[in-house]
Amino acid sequence: MADFDNLKLEKGMYAGGSFTGALERLDPSENYKGTALEGLDAYQRQLKRFGIRVSGPGSDIVDKFFSTSDSAVLFPEYVSRAVRQGFEQADLLPRIVACVTNIDGMDYRSVASIPSEDEKELKVVGEGAFIPETNVRTKENLVRLRKRGRTLVASYEAIKYQRLDLFTVTLRQIGAYIARTQLKDAVDVLINGDGNNNAAPTASCGAPGMLTYEDLIDLWNSFDPYEMNTLLCGASVMSSLLCMDEFRDGTAGLTFHGTGKAITPLGASLFKCGAVTDGDLLALDHTAALEMVRAGDVATEYDKLIDRQLERAVISCTAGFSKLFDGAAKVLTV
Q1: Distance between CA atoms of 105 and 89, rounded to whole angstroms?
Q2: Closest Cα partner for 99 from 84, 111, 88?
Q3: Do the Cβ atoms of 322 and 110 come closer than 8 Å?
Q4: Domain spans, the chain
Q5: pLDDT per position as a tens digit, 228-244
Q6: DSSP letters of 241-308?
Q7: What is the distance between the alpha carbons of residues 21 and 260, in angstroms, rounded to a whole number?
Q8: pTM higher than the cut 0.90
Q9: Gap between the Cα atoms of 304 and 158, Å rounded
């Protein structure tokens, strides 16, 4: 078994991009199977080593991280994890992203396959005959990556005696902010395209200003060969949907009042989303509409967090979005 109590911790372990990954290479979790430490990752074992509790009624104060030079190295990873918690709690992106591509640089060009109606049909191929082709090409324009984040400003003296569970709440809010802004970027790409002339088709309701169930049926029908399985809308459109008679039947009402999760008679998942212009309904096939391109995970300026004991530190995440298949996302204007 690796001796996690004697590992030498240094800030250079952040240079590879993953502090926990660096710890796991030195102290693999698989060595702890069948022991009392099974289930903890390498970072959590280091917290246990220094007796640092980051959550619960008995959580320690921030100053506990800085009691030794080794334990101070753990602080940036604590910040990243707390921010990531808020990001994941507020994150709607997994519900609309078909795939996530992680890259090491800042330049990325996605691929596209835009088959014609004739190419979508898999025809019978005779013996020795030519098999139809599907062409996959790189897109003309690069994916636009945007860095989103916040600067954390606080003197060490101001927070040294704050409990870590309280400080975690503030960090989670930063993560939630990043998630909301990235969602706004994703919705913008779905509606307006990624710069490769692939904006989403837009349709209007049969009666302007009034959304009907027939409009939803027409929208659903237009998705073939894709599946309309996700709907995003603002507050006013959500109210219009929930007030439809079709949404007031017994099953829909029990599900909504019992779980708070709105459903649609068409089987699509319905989400209220402030990133969608109020008055629009964004419909998509979440398995084919959008690619997320991410340049690393949540990043923190570890030098400032360790050497200067906080002061000013930037917490950020760099990502961009690319549309996959035209026709897998459409907008209905109410």
Answers
A1: 27
A2: 111
A3: yes
A4: 92-113+137-157+182-334
A5: 999 999 999 999 888 88
A6: HHTSGGGSSHHHHHHHHHHS--B-TTS-EEEE-TTSPTTEEEEE-TTTSEEEEESSS-EE-HHHHHHS
A7: 38
A8: no
A9: 16
